[in-house]
Fold this sequence. Notes:
Structural class: alpha/beta
Strand order of the largest sheet: 6-7-8-3-9-10
Shape: globular
CATH topology of the domain at 2-81 and 167-263: Rossmann fold
Number of strands: 10
Distance between the termini: 32 Å
CATH class of the domain at 2-81 and 167-263: Alpha Beta
Radius of gyration: 19 Å
CATH superfamily of the domain at 2-81 and 167-263: P-loop containing nucleotide triphosphate hydrolases
Helix content: 25-40%
Amino acid sequence: MIQLTNVSKTFNANTINEKKALVDLNLTIETGDFITVIGGNGAGKSTLLNLIAGVFPCDGGQILLDDIDLTKQPEYRRAKLLGRVFQDPMMGTAADMGIEENLAMAYRRGKKRGLGWGIKKGERAIYKEKLETLELGLETRLSSKVGLLSGGQRQALTLLMATLQKPKLLLLDEHTAALDPKTARKVLELTDEMVSRDSLTTLMVTHNMKDAIRLGNRLIMMHEGRIIFDIKGQEKKSLQVKDLLEKFETVSGDTMDNDRMLLS
């Protein structure tokens, strides 16, 4: 479904601050894959998601989605194909707009806009039904400003918005990292439910190795812009954190020094 071939990205090229974020990276994502992505600081995890989303262009290589060449397409053209949830709960929603207004924008993504009334009764019923699945009481607060919600509520809403029109690929960039542990667990539960229910092809960056092992059917580990470990199926299910640390040291020739990953 998704094919990345020899994808490269260097920031501040030919300067003292040059950083090779991705180096000839190759990755095939099959339809229905739920891939967790781990790696230390500067491994290229977020850069990988940003290149797929079109936030900035590749220096080289090709990105295909269902045989559609996305490599040179701008971000706004890819938006109708992708869903994305960011690390910061303040991103992905419009704080000064109501809950139903935010959902309406997501519901209309990729569709032609007319001059009719904004939100119709039938559409509002859909939003209520979807919000009820979050079990956060938001279905009774449709007109509430999103800026008044807690970080967890807002992130859950963003997740719902990203999946409202089933995307070809769901991108999750450490979307629970800014939340407290209890709220993070709730958002991860919702994530797993939505991905499983709708068979969403998903790429989830996380710093939590236990979550990376527990969730999804496939795990990839990145280091210095390359994929150094790719495991799926029953082998993945039998992994333990110590196995990942040992694999990282064996393949990279270095020790894991990412405090967030080691402490989580």
